[in-house]
User: What shape does this take?
Amino acid sequence: MLIISHNVSIPVDEIELIAIRAQGAGGQNVNKVSSAIHLRFDINASSLSDFYKERLLNLRDRRIGKEGVIVIKAQKYRTQEKNREDALARLQALIRDVSVVKKTRRPTTPTKGSQTRRMDSKARRGKLKATRGKVIE
Assistant: This one.
């Protein structure tokens, strides 16, 4: 079980983990060992609640395909176990981020006092600049 929060978890059989060869430098080891992990998670076929499914599908993320499949490629570490942990942690973080509901912003207006202070300071500054004219003899 991949635990997202105290009341949300994903069974491991819904997450597909495939070992693949990592890209980049690494010498002969890269050509022999499949240390990178390809994680695939189908949102629509999962046991997540409709709230999470809807939020994940509406998320504009390049890791989520048009079919609703999350694809995460983990190849940061040299060992397969650490890459598997990294991929699962990234999936967990993605789902946790979706669960947070942002507060709606209510526009506010400046107070009467702050408006008068602003206008007074502008007038004072304007008078100061007006006195900087050329000296007439």
Remarks:
- Residues 80-99 form the longest helix (20 residues).
- The beta strands are 2-3, 9-10, 15-20, 36-42, 69-74.
- The two ends are 89 Å apart (CA to CA).
- The chain is about 40% helix and 15% strand.
